[in-house]
Amino acid sequence: MATQNTISRKSDMSGQEYQWGFVTDIETDLAPRGLNEDIVRLISSKKGEPEWMLEWRLKAYRHWVKLNEAEGEPEWANVKYPKIDYQDIYYYAAPKSVTEAPKSLDDVDPEMLATFEKLGIPLQERAKLAGVAVDAVFDSVSVATTFEKQLGELGIIFCSFSEAVKNHPDLIKKYLGSVVPYTDNFFASLNAAVFSDGSFAYIPPGVRCPMELMTYFRINTADTGQFERTLIVADEGSYVSYLEGCTAPFRKTHQLHAAVVELIALDDSEIKYSTIQNWFPGTPEGEGGIFNFVTKRGRADKNAKISWTQVETGSAITWKYPSVILKGDNSVGEFFSVALTNNYQQADTGTKMIHIGKNTKSTIVAKGISAGHGNNTYRGQVQIMPGAENAVNHTQCDSLLIGDKCGAHTVPYIEVRNPTARLEHEASTSKVSDEQLFYLRARGLSEEEAHHMIITGWSREVFKELPFEFALEANQLLRVSLEGAVG
Amino acid sequence: MPRFLAGALAHSTSHKTLDQTFRPVARKNKMLEIKNLRVSVLDIDDSEILKGINLTVKTGEVHAIMGPNGSGKSTLANVMMGRPDYVINEGDILYDGESIINLLPEKRAHFGMFLAFQYPAEIPGVRPWQFLKAALDAKADSRGEEKMSVRDFSKLFDEKVAAVGIDPQLVKRSLNEGFSGGEKKRNEMLQLEVLKPELAILDETDSGLDVDALRIVAQGVNSMRSPDRSFIIVTHYQRLLNYIKPDVVHILVKGRIVKTGGPELALEVEKDGYKQYASVGASA
């Protein structure tokens, strides 16, 4: 009898809440459903793009068509989902009031500003207080970039991708597709063909960007795909810390998100890229949610450093491998990740560290938390090329299981072609133990608080890499995402 | 015969009722009364460990519960705190006249119970400071009291760390992770001194301690002895009782208290061992 009561209490708590599930009622400019060359041309013309940009898109589109006919989506990932009908998706949705790009925040639809406020995005005054420069992308269109002027004085460019195409074509031509070519993979090709906006940042030589740059992504309209593109170039000897946050409303149908992020760290520079991915994960029963197929890669030149930190709590499916090509001698690549899957979420995520230069060093700390029926796979590749003398890699993969219906998998690929390389791989799997829980509860913490404390403690190695405010948000997010998983 | 899951909810409604009604008032002469308590291990048949325990501890008293290995001492300590791995077959535990056997462990902590663990769990990534602050905050929250400021807490924490003799570098690391046995026990004493419970249960706190550490534990308990606070000291050996003088000593053998007396009883055990009580335990 007592056991029965315990079970019924569990089911009472299983209603997971997604706080960011609201829909904003904004007039939207939609292109017709489906994908063909005309849609690609339409997107390009909507954005007033130059001919070279359109050409690049069309090349990408044609490549994607070939891939789609030949083999379709990549199928090697440990995720299961119904087939995506690429002709049933809207490839362009823009809030109507910004189709005539806003001149300032005053021109932005107040409904949209209210949405960003609900999301806790520091625009306007709040941005100044927080000292964060924000670019917000709403249904693929960049709506506001704060601090552009202040950053401009240092020669830093931080703007929407569309503006960069217009105002800084030389930089875009030089770097676009240089790390993730449009032929890279199925989703990267799709993105290159139809990307509607994103962020661009350029840090001039020797400049240390004085504030964190931030982009907030939001999918609002139903059945739209979001395809944003981010390009960050850190010129020689510069430094930048970049933050990315994502949310989407509660919808019972799946939505596709296929983004591309390219980082270029020139000699002696450093890029720190932090992500909190909280796309709608679907209902506790596994309905709806975002399909998140993202390609992120950076190139580190001589003495340069690229560091990826990600906290992945959202999306029905996450397919994402932020990677570093360690091209220059003495370059450093880092990947710190916490991926959480609850209910019916699936994540196949990890990194690639490709060592080309001498004395290159990479660190991977990947932590996966599985709860409910969640399925979490770490997939990582460490590749040491013949010229990479004295390359060093340390990989640590930890899995934490909550309950007995979830799964954790680790799939490391290691390829060493230089005998001087030193590689270490550590992996662990653990559960939250009854001893730990009772210890914390005997000190006055509720069962849920106790779980949360154990899990955030376990994630600390990754959280400490996040900027302070972001770490607090990640902490909070973990708490909300695990609601219903414990108790 | 009603069977309750220790520390869990017997009825979904009783939880709320208890929460709302159980508010021990701040007055002296609160009592812990254990009445004919029979306890088994959850999900294991014929595993009765406690076979009818009767025990009364008045506020301000220090009781020692002594017994050989496997007598049920630790079970008793854990069941008092509400560990969920046991089933209460019969009997009751009353505090200040009200039954607490359906209270969650955290609720017991809130009204002032404390268990110093024999084997404190290791919690990676959680710093002792953060843990203790959260515990103190949870207690304050449950009582509608204001939380201690970070500054005041830090001061108190540093003070107590020095008092119990923990290496200050150690408490910057993960809770109990990589702590030696002695360091874990000192850390339990640190928590005891910060949380200031009304009823503290020390489960074999003396095991694995050297003489210096033993003295520090004893000093902590002795300095906290007060008319408003009671202690239950569970121990196998008499040596801790050289430093802490108990008011009452109980001998627990095979799940039953077979003898109760004054401090002299501990010396009797020291001299003649537990064997003399074996037959009493079997037949009682």
List its traits.
heterodimer, A: 487 residues, alpha/beta, 2 domains, eleven-stranded mixed β-sheet, ten-stranded mixed β-sheet, 25% helix, globular, B: 284 residues, Rossmann fold, six-stranded mixed β-sheet, five-stranded antiparallel β-sheet, 11 strands, 35% helix
Average the pLDDT over all residues of chain B and give the rounded result: 86
Stretches of chain B where pLDDT is under 50 for at least 5 consecutive residues are 1-24
**Main beta-sheet strand count, sense and barrel state of chain A:** 11 strands, mixed
- Tell me the major beta sheet of chain B: 6 strands, mixed
Estimate what percentage of residues of chain B fall within beta strands: 15-25%
- Tell me the Rg of chain A in angstroms: 22 Å
Cα shape of chain A: globular
Distance N terminus to C terminus of chain B? 22 Å
What is the helix content of chain B?
25-40%
Strand content of chain A: 25-35%
Please name the CATH architecture of chain B.
3-Layer(aba) Sandwich
> Care to count the β-strands of chain B?
11
* Percentage of residues in helical conformation of chain A: 25-40%
Structural class by sheet pairing and helices of chain A: alpha/beta
Total beta-strand segments of chain A: 23
Order of helices and strands of chain B: EHEEEHEEHEHHHEHEEEHH
CATH class of chain B: Alpha Beta
Q: Could you give the order of strands across the largest sheet of chain B?
A: 7-8-9-4-10-11
For CATH, the homologous superfamily of chain B is named as P-loop containing nucleotide triphosphate hydrolases
Q: What is the overall pLDDT average of chain A?
A: 82
